[in-house]
Amino acid sequence: MRIFRLGDAGPEVGDIQDRLSALGVTIDDEERGGEFGPSTDAGVRNFQGERSLRVDGLVGPDTWGQLVEAGYRLGDRTLYLHFPLYRGDDVSTLQRKLNVLGFDAGREDGLFGKKTDRAIRDFQRNVGEEPDGIVGLHTISTLERMRPHETGPSRAMVREAEELRHMRTSAQGQVIAIDAGAAEADEPDDLATRAIAGSVMDHLIALGCKPASLGAEPGAPQMASERAREANSIGAAMCISVHLASGLPEASGPTCSYFGSARTHSPAGMLLAQLILDELERELGVRGRLQRLTGAMLRETRMPAVQVEPAFITNEVEAAQLGDPAHRDRIGRAISQGVHRFFSE
Asked: In degrees to the nearest 10, what's the CA dihedral of 41, 6, 306, 249?
């Protein structure tokens, strides 16, 4: 889809403004009707921050998708297992209620997948309803009468943390999905991203892993959601998405992100991101940052997934370093060492 930003105009911008307004965002009168001005930009950035999205003021697939999803409340529509999956705040509310009642709906990611379908059927069976997996007003009413207490960690988070605690395995033979960002044009930053991803793959092979590049074949998926589905379809044990960060000229250091919002997160993803960040900080001799994000590559993959931004392309020093093959290889080695620690520790 087209990316909308400050200075754009048109009916699509008007739609963005209407959705922001419905969420309580104030848009200046002179911008209403489709002018992407300062108040619209501020509204988009606030929304991105609240939803754990990259705060850049750009309305691309992730931000637009979540603007649409934020408009759904439980009961607005009938939910059931469907492809493409139903997604929205109504789904995440349903997942949260099921989880706190002890019906394992999986990660509270707002995607009505197979785990959520099983959980709602278990719930319906438990309360004496027809276990058809259809979440209509009757099932919602029954669910609400149970008065689920929606505070504290979800069952999915606790289960994932427990699985990590008892996991003992090896990197040998593990399928690792490698995503080189969008990487659709041979611009310098895209070439550096591809080179780093290639280095990660080489080092993982040396560790006995089986790395698989996402979107590598002609005509392969390029949208993040499609690449996430590809990672799921190959049964990857882990997904590493490599990007280069952009921001203020003085911004520097690596950033490692994992799936997470204000309400929930992936314990396995957080651990993997922390281990990779530790290795990057050690290898590059700079401090970095760990953050939660809800972008498609982290939210829609069904395995521990991280987004690694080892440097800022907008920082002159770091951009120059990225032109050095030896420096890119050091980054690749650090990322692969973090993967190795995740399995071996």
From this structure: -100
